[in-house]
Structures are given as structure tokens and as C-alpha cells.
Backbone:
């Protein structure tokens, strides 16, 4: 089997990216995995490299990266015909600031050997893919797929701030911390009209997460193979509750927030103005378009432990 690997370096003052890559390649060779490896230095190049591997007939495409890089790979796979996609398996060696989808399957950034063994064993689970649909200025439908979740509101705004501050600060952790501070000077709630399971409500919402998987601790009961989406909504909160919400998110206890609402569904429809949206950590510009989030069952072959 042809295995193509895309290495997305994790730049950290505490770890040498080159040595980590050497360690990964040594384990791949030790376990007899035949592979070709390329390095992606920019976010935009992941999609180009995945497309190249699809066109060159690779059976396995492995991302050494985080949720955002996996998202790029999934969106490339969903663009090709189903009969082509069914012949390709997607794998991951966790190497990002967010590795939530990998963590769902028991993979750890610290345990490289575990992920390499999984690639060698090639045990496959066909997983669901969520789909965000919106309409651009020309009224053409746009689609963005996700393995993990769509965030709307507070956490989506943090993702946008983090991306902007990272360009200036050159540090992922520092940019995330600065983003949290800047959030105190941002809007705390967004007017949304949303329809879930046939019921329409209109509220000021602090944050909404629609997850096919764990959703950064916000949809911890979601599983990416039951054809369902879990939805967590935190309604309007004051400054104190906003700070508490951020604190609970960082602790992985978001569901303990006092204003939480939980749902399970196959479709969510949302209307609102100037809503910040992120898809698997990618900030997404949707304008004032109505949003529709669906689930597409068993679309991606994923390599599990």
C-alpha cells in the first residue's frame, strides 16, 4: 500500500521539530511502513499536498498535525468522487495545539509509537462527517466539512483572535492567552435564531458548539459514527459568567456552566448577523448568510488503534 505522509511542524520553544520528525520516521522504518513524506510549512499547503496524493493514487494519507490539518484533508477527500474516496484511508499522528479528534480514538501526542503501530496494522473505522452549508454574496451554496465540530460565538471568536495574534507573536500558547484577554473587550453574546429538531428559538447566545465528536470538551457524548450531531448552547451571560465559561472550557468542564442547553439532532439551522464561526479550529467567513449544519454518515475511512 502507498502511504503518503504530510508533516506539519509544531513550533515550540520546548521541543525540536526536526528531532521529532526524525523520531517519527525512525519508528515508521522500524515498523516496516513504506511511505513518502512531505513537509507543509503553511496552512494553505496542506490542501495542495493532500490533493496531490489523491491524484497520485496513495492508499493511505497520514497527517502529522492537529485538528485543523485533518480538516483540510477531509475537505479535499470530500471533493473527490465517492468511489475514489472509499479506496483511501486517512490517518493521524497528533502534532497540533488541538488534537481532539485524535484524542477521541485514544491517540496521544506523546505516544508516537502507538500511532505508528496503528498505521502498520491498518485497522479502519468509517466515520461520519459534519457539513456546514452557507451562501456567499452571489447566493451560491458553499460547503465546509468537519470531523470534530463547528463553533459559533465566543470560542469561534477566540480562534479568530488566536490566529491573528499568532501572526504577530509567533507563539501558539502566548497567542491563545492574549486572545482570552482580548475577549474581555469583545461582544459577549450574539442574537441567534436557531431551529433544532423542528423547534425554533430566538436567544442571545454566548457560544454554540455543534459536534460530530468531542468538540473540545463541549460535546463529550458525541461519537463520529452514530449519524447524529450533539449541540451545546450557552445562552446570554454577563462578564462574570463569561470568565467562568472560559475557565470551565480550559478545564474541560464546559457542561457545568449554569446556562447550558443540550440537544442531539441531525440538522441545525441558524440565522444571525456578524456571527463568528470556526470549523475544526479554522475561522470561517460566512457573512450574514443563514447557516445549515448537517451530518453525512460513514464518509471517511479513518485509521484507528
Residues:
Amino acid at each position: 500500500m502507498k502511504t503518503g505522509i504530510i508533516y506539519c511542524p509544531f513550533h515550540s520553544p520546548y521541543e525540536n521539530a526536526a528531532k521529532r520528525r526524525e523520531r517519527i520516521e525512525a519508528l515508521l522504518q522500524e515498523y516496516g511502513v513504506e511511505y513518502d513524506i512531505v513537509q507543509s510549512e503553511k496552512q494553505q499547503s496542506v490542501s495542495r499536498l493532500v490533493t496531490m496524493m489523491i491524484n497520485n493514487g496513495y492508499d493511505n494519507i497520514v497527517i502529522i498535525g492537529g485538528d485543523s490539518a485533518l480538516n483540510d484533508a477531509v475537505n479535499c477527500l470530500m471533493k473527490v468522487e465517492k468511489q475514489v474516496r472509499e479506496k483511501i484511508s486517512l490517518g493521524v499522528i497528533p502534532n497540533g495545539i488541538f488534537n481532539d479528534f485524535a484524542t477521541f480514538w485514544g491517540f496521544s501526542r506523546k505516544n508516537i509509537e502507538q500511532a505508528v503501530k496503528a498505521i502498520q496494522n491498518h485497522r479502519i473505522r468509517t466515520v461520519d462527517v459534519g457539513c456546514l452549508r452557507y451562501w456567499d454574496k452571489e447566493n451560491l451554496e458553499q460547503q465546509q466539512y468537519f470531523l470534530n465540530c463547528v463553533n459559533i460565538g465566543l470560542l469561534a471568536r477566540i480562534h479568530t483572535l488566536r490566529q491573528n495574534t499568532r501572526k504577530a507573536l509567533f507563539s501558539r500558547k502566548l497567542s491563545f492567552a492574549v486572545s482570552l484577554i482580548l475577549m474581555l473587550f469583545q461582544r459577549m453574546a450574539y442574537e441567534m435564531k436557531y431551529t433544532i429538531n423542528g423547534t425554533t428559538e430566538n436567544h442571545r447566545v454566548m457560544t454554540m458548539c455543534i459536534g460530530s465528536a468531542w468538540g473540545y470538551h463541549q460535546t463529550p457524548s458525541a461519537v463520529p459514527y452514530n449519524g447524529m450531531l450533539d449541540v451545546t448552547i450557552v445562552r446570554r451571560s454577563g462578564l462574570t459568567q463569561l470568565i467562568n465559561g472560559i475557565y470551565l472550557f480550559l478545564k474541560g468542564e464546559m457542561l457545568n456552566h449554569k446556562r447550558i442547553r443540550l440537544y442531539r439532532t441531525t440538522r441545525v439551522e441558524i440565522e444571525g448577523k456578524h456571527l463568528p464561526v470556526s470549523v475544526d479550529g479554522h475561522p470561517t467567513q460566512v457573512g450574514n448568510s443563514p447557516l445549515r449544519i448537517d451530518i453525512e454518515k460513514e464518509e471517511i475511512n479513518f485509521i484507528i488503534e
